[in-house]
Amino acid sequence: MTSLLDAPSVSAPDPLGHQAPRITTVPATRLSSSGQEAIELAALAGLNLDPWQQHVLDLGLSEREDGRWAAFEVAVNVPRQNGKGGIIEARQLAGLFLLGEKLILHSAHEFKTSIVAFKRIEQLIMGCPDLRKRVLRVRRTTGEEAIELVTGQTLRFLARSGGSGRGFTGDCNILDEAMILGDDAMGALMPTMSAVPNPQIWYLGSAGIGAPSVQLGRLRSRAMAAVEVGEPDPSLAYFEWSVDPHRAECGPSCTNHVDADDPAAWAVANPALGIRITAEHVRNERLSMGSGGIFERERLGVGNYPSDGAETWQVIGEDAWRALADAKAKPTGPYAFSVDATPERDSASIVVACPWRGGTHIEVIAHQPGMGWVVERAKQLQEKWKPRCWVVDGGGPAGSLIADLEESLGVTVVQPKAREIAQATGQFYDAVADQSISHLDPPPLAVALAGAQKRPLGEAWAWARRNVGVDISPLVAATLAKWGLSAEVETQPNRDILSNVW
Q1: For a Cys-Cys bond, which of 151, 189, 462, 489 suits 457, CB 3.0-4.6 Å?
Q2: pLDDT in tens, 281-313
């Protein structure tokens, strides 16, 4: 007789992600849709969309009786790596080849994200003979990436800033990384559509991260209000995949809260689960991210959304900071570099400071996910620029890198004491106040400042790392790099440089 212990084990299949969003609202004026044509065109280009992606396109491209878009604004809020890029690409293909939109503007928070999106759509178009023959030219010049058709339609790629999009009249704006989208970018892009007969704007991103998510918070508030009263928003189509953190939504194992270990909860928030995301991978993410809310935000869609009147730029005013931007800065050495990371260790920053016109110029050299890249990048910078010092808070998240940095760079990393960190923060704050800092308005640093808060440190204060809902590692690194210019260290030879050559 065969024992049950001898029977081969059978792995349970991955749960399939929910193809319908948990939160949705679509204008009641919907009569028809261009979605099916967009889906078929995407398939022609080799882009086969999941049911949930088709669902978004079908409803997002709804038309009223007069032929205009039912939704002026379309927002897709879904955790990362589920496939929102496919929706973006299908919408862009439709705009270029079906809808006759003269100008489509695609922007992202970071320029490198826009470049990746540009390369993906270029491959789809140029890989399809029926579409390729309609292309007049592809512009690949940095900062001017675009695809132009012989019939005049253009798809252009931008990195967001207060000036991006000014001067353009776009039929469609596609705003990727919508969780980092503030009033400055909206002020630049929204007016471009004011004279367009039938404009549409698409927002695509993941769960809100506090202060930077101002615009996404507004859209979500409108959607939630529409759902609550049972009356669709008249101009917004909103689709959100997330778990409800306040009530049972993920199966019998939940009581009055979300069980982050329950695969049923993963399925609610991730439509691509069982398609391109495996339960094994999500389980590994859960183990790696642990508790503290990171997993809930990144994989379950539980975000931090400011209200429309939420305070941002509470410590340093936005106008004061923006006024210090100097694109013509040409600083020379000596240089001080600093490294910092998030408490969760999911991203890190390298920032440089150097003298310029009687004050200090700072630049964010790198701001990337993870920490494995830091030492090698620091080694390259050390060999090229021979800075006077490297500064790392030994008690901070990047403190674990100090030994490897010293071994790789052949220098002693300066580790400020608590009182020196407070002094550094005060010096940075005062330098903004007396306008003795210049910068290139790097988005990671602006985002950090927008959400920055204070924490007491003795009788002074420093930047708060936890519970601020934003990555402040660029700000901490900038603060310590500036302090490093006057720290007592053994100086090294320096080389003159021009800005933007790091």
Answers
A1: 462
A2: 999 988 887 765 788 888 999 887 775 545 567
